[in-house]
């Protein structure tokens, strides 16, 4: 399936950033780029007032504040996210430190050192470092970056001997960094604890023993409640994904020889979330195929249709797509007698929203509407937006693949990275939304740990529910049984 990207639309909107310290920076620093910044360095290219390319050195210089300049927040986020393609974060930090020290020395070389100006400059550097540590804390995991950060902080503190404001801010920054890194480690442990329990190959829950096993309707018969708990699970899993993980994903699939941020460990969070989609799809198929009686099986199908509709209403498109995918798996789709009894009008509508034609145009329209509603909503229940993860990843992958990192003149193609960071920023905004629904641990535990059938077991359960209709299906059933008997 081909995905087509539209032309770039450079929207420099608010991205995940730390709030400025008004008390430290004062009213002089608004956090916006001043118009004369274009003249500060010559090795940058602008188009219609927007930065579109520049040398890496010029872009680094643009990141560092001066006495009368502080970089735009969208630029900070985009630059720190994208330049890891060209330079390791610890090396970037060292370069930033060198520029900061040079500027500090120039301020100190005046006829009479202006302590007020020096303090203002130092406060801006602290602000930049705090935005960096809060948005990309993992950049400071290794000892080299940690030491460089402390060295810069120590040199800055020299100008604050008479006032502890900057020192307090630096201490607050380091404490926040420790907490953020500790929190990410805890998320890794949680991810390992809720790994899905998948049935071994060949295992099939027989009809005579089914009464001993729970099914979805016995655990939760309310479609809205299940959709709400699915949203909890989605947001919990998505919370483990960070901006640098997503950038790493789209560059990891290409040529990574010259990239500075390739780390296979970063794929773990992404793979865990991708596996959740597959787990949910298979759980839906398992719950349908395991039911022996047609009337009850029809009820389960209609229940999942209602759950999918509630997911759509909530804005949980990833669970919606997973449910539809599970119901379209061959072992489920072939149950014609069951489907003949199902009221499919609601399902047909939901399938149209997930129709892949025109690059999933209907889904993208619905996602855009949900995003607009989220921005304007006053109720937390209307703020949830969970995109279809696989489509989001394909979008940023093709955006990265179709446009070069550097232009023929050697400049960094910053126009490309504006768009990448915009899309990743949207994702980060959505993942930060707190799920407002009451937690039902029993339902969540079932969703995460209920046994699911292998592909072979699904087919056998399907054939036992509704026998083979033709020679091809009969041969398939014989082959599957023979294979399972050998296990």
Strand content: under 5%
Rounded mean pLDDT is 82
Shape: elongated
Helix count from the secondary structure assignment: 22
Q: Stretches where pLDDT falls below 50 for ≥5 residues? A: 1-36, 192-211, 254-259
**Rg (CA only):** 27 Å
Question: What proportion of the residues is helical, as a percent range?
Answer: 55-70%
Task: Please give the order of strands in the largest beta sheet.
Answer: 1-2
Task: Give a quick set of tags describing it.
487 residues; mainly alpha; two-stranded antiparallel sheet; 2% strand; elongated
Outline of the structure:
By secondary structure, the protein is mostly helical. It has helices at 22-25, 56-63, 73-82, 89-108, 115-135, 143-157, 165-193, 216-219, 223-238, 243-252, 267-289, 294-314, 317-327, 330-333, 336-340, 345-353, 357-376, 389-402, 414-431, 441-449, 455-465, 471-486; strands at 44-47, 50-54.
Q: What do these coordinates show?
A:
The chain is mainly alpha-helical. The protein has 22 helices and two strands. The chain has helices at 22-25, 56-63, 73-82, 89-108, 115-135, 143-157, 165-193, 216-219, 223-238, 243-252, 267-289, 294-314, 317-327, 330-333, 336-340, 345-353, 357-376, 389-402, 414-431, 441-449, 455-465, 471-486, and strands at residues 44-47, 50-54. The chain has a two-stranded antiparallel ribbon. Strand 1 (44-47) and strand 2 form a beta hairpin. Helix 9 packs across helix 12, helix 11 runs antiparallel to helix 12 (294-314) and helix 12 packs antiparallel against helix 13. The longest helix has 29 residues, at 165-193. It is elongated. Mean pLDDT is 82; it is low at 1-36, 192-211 and 254-259.
